[in-house]
Amino acid sequence: MRVLITGARGFVGPYVAKAIAQVFGQDAEVLRSSISRATHNYEDLYDLDVTDIQSVLRQLEHLRPTHVVHLAGLAAVPVAAANAEVAWHINLLGTLNIAQAILQTVPTCVLLYIGSGQVYGASAKDNCPLTEKSLLAPTNPYEASKAAADLAIGAMASSGLHAIRIRPFNHTGPGQSDQFVVPSLAMQIARIKIGQQQPIVRVGNLAAERDFLDVRDVANAYALALKHSHHIEPGTILNISSGSGTSINSILTRLIQFAGREIEVCSDATRFRNVDIPRFVGDSTLARTLLGWRPIFSLDDTLKDVLLHCERAIREP
Predict the structure, then answer these.
(1) Where on the phi/psi map is residue 208: left (φ > 0), alpha (ψ -120 to 50), or beta?
(2) In the chain, what is the greatest distance between 2 CA atoms, to the nearest angstrom?
(3) pLDDT tens digit string along 193-244?
(4) Distance CA 14, CA 32 (A)
(5) Which CATH entry fits the domain spanning 2-173+213-243+281-296: 1.20.1600.10, 3.60.15.10, 3.40.50.720, 3.90.650.10?
(6) Which of 28, 54, 215, 265 is most buried by its number of CB atoms within 10 A?
(7) pLDDT per residue over 260-317, tens digit each?
(8) Under 8 Å CB-to-CB from 317, ≥6 apart: which residues?
(9) What is the model's pTM?
């Protein structure tokens, strides 16, 4: 079994590699790929620009993976909004290139397409847990580009591509960029705790509720999807979610409590989104049934780990 991970330098990539090793042991060879290996020392980090079809064809012909976990993409909503053309180029065109190259070079290869629960967009306004049958209703370039790629992979699955579409909801953990809400709050609090910032945390919409998971639980779901891939019908969609909502205010309160400091909270207009769904929660019943998956990490443990990682990153840059 040869598993190629695209976007392996990103936040989730190392966790997926570790989860695959835990699930398969010596039975799986993990091949990491990225747009550039120049700044990394992995012997098996291969150059792969997913937006360059010739690059993709060459590497897949060379590596001949049995499975591909497609993580490469532009993931931060604000960054995608500010660079919509780039988001479409990477998230949609890059995904199509991977899928087409698989069909041309290794047609029996299984593609695990990592999409996003955010593709449901405005459908969350119904205030019900989102299932795989919920309408895709994207509200920004990130959601739209991921939804388009998701639909394209679904169509290609009916034409011979053995693809499984994964839609993970919000996940966080040590190492995530502070472009995302949990590490953004944790990094501010870590700086306060260490004495590098005044005891003021600047925040956006604290009322919003999101379905948070630990990245390690999400990575385990991906590994289990690989394990069961040959028993899952091509084109299948699997939500990966906790099934419960937690407000950003609750996240902030817990982080401040774990830091053990008196901290003032200040609203910052620049941190609010133009469209912010009040509650966004997924239903992962199908994934739990087909994969035997369930979350293990508690939210408190995840937040403590993120805060500790932020403190270490500040002390040891």
Answers:
(1) beta
(2) 59
(3) 999 999 999 999 999 999 999 999 999 999 999 999 999 999 999 999 999 9
(4) 9
(5) 3.40.50.720
(6) 215
(7) 999 999 999 888 877 689 999 999 999 999 999 999 999 999 999 999 999 999 998 7
(8) none
(9) 0.95
